[in-house]
Amino acid sequence: MTERIIIAGSGGQGVMLLGKVLAESAMREARHVTWLPSYGAEVRGGTANCMVVISDEEIGSPFVQYADSMIVLNDESLRRFGGRLKSRGLLVLNSSLAQSAPPAKIKNLESRPFSAIALELGTVKVANIVALGCFVAAGGIVGKGSVEGVIKGKAGEVSTDIITLNLKALSKGFGLAGGSRAKGGR
Amino acid sequence: MSARGNGHAKILMTGNEAIAEGAIRAGCRFYAGYPITPQNELTAYMARHMPQEGRVFIQAESELAAVNMVFGASATGVRAMTSSSSPGISLKQEGISYLAGCRLPAVIVNIMRGGPGLGNIAPSQADYFQATKGGGHGDYHSIVLAPASVEEAYRTMFDAFDLADTYRTPVMVLGDGMLGQMMEPLILEKGPVRQHAKTWALTGCRGRKPNIVRSLFLKEGVLEALNLQLQKKYKAIQQKEQRWEELLVEDASVILVAYGGMARIVKEAVRGLRAGHKKIGFIRPISLWPFPVKAFRRPGKKSVKYLVVEMSYGQMVEDVRLAVECRAPVEFFGRSGGGIPTEEEILKKLHTMS
Questions:
Q1: Which of A6, B131, B215, B333 could be joined to B101 by an S-S link, Cβ 3.0–4.6 Å?
Q2: Inter-chain contact A63–B178, Cβ cutoff 8 Å?
Q3: What is the ipTM of this complex?
């Protein structure tokens, strides 16, 4: 199985970090994984995106033309990338900032107010991890435990408060999913 | 990434970071560079970690300055390296020619971007000619190595420094923006680091005859004699140092050929075709100079076709044609300037060949 994922938002929303945490979670599950950032001048202020490929086999291209699943954190990114989601693909969408209607063909949609929920948790900065939690529950591509392991693994780099907050954000997001594909994950 | 791994656990790193870490572990004592996308993480990693290891990092005032600082460091016998991306590598060519002429070892990393000119920052393989055919002036070659994954990029650095010291020659590590920017898991295993006696180095001549490092030889016949020595060295490298990966070539009716980041996509296409029982093989040149001609010379092999795929409008394909010596048809598909050939495009081209 190979899962090709696009993660997009605006610069500053933690899109790159979200992708790295997801990639590291897959690595902890001993799977093949690549992470490819957009590295143009577009990172400043405009849309930021990264591509994550998770597979049980050696991965060819780290570039994702058409995505099996997508996490989109703002409106502009939805307009830019929405058309690149495969017809049966999963879209995890931040409804706090993405007001445009997602493409009608998308059947597998988790549209939740990640930014608003993050604000309730204390800071909008964790909207990315709330979204990741929702993605983990709805997509079933990596296990929640693996993601928690990655977050806890940052203990040497950030304060305990930040770890606790992110774990809370992950759980909150995890509880939001309506059970699209495989709630509970691997 | 601050965590530099303990040599046992898998960690995630970009290709740029893995190259930098590989260089440090391979004993690189001196790095000078000047920023340019898409290789900036390499320079940044060196800026952070070389001083921690008690080694030298210099952000030079220009690419030209950086390569000449590497020249100076190498002349003293230490392992030295610079890195850049395409336009910056063009600026370094004078220095690389001088390194070759003075028989100095050095490692130069080129994380290629779109050209010609300032081009763009998208992945590209359009510097193949420049890397493998000399680049600067004079009759010389650099050894050119092209890794295809983050893990291989890390390992390649041990090989690159060893080849540079063994043959007293510049070695170029050629990657593309995709390889430099992408992250993959790897284990930072310590590679072999051989010590080379550098009796030619400028280390202070008390008690011995002074060593002289130069490439200017005006006296009649001297330069020609030295150039013949260089040619002898290049012949030895061509015989001993060809590196390539191959897959399912034995019974193949078509063999796809690609290197570096492009080879990942081609290999995936080959695996898919094999699953559909198509007799398709794969050759990935790892040393671009010396080009692995041995991979293309198989006695008794008949009726095979080659398809070369590059992120350029056809550069390595010329070396494949030279290696094949007209014994088999060689077709080409490529894109450049930001376009990356897709699996669908490769399959479509393949279809026109059958």
A1: B215
A2: yes
A3: 0.92
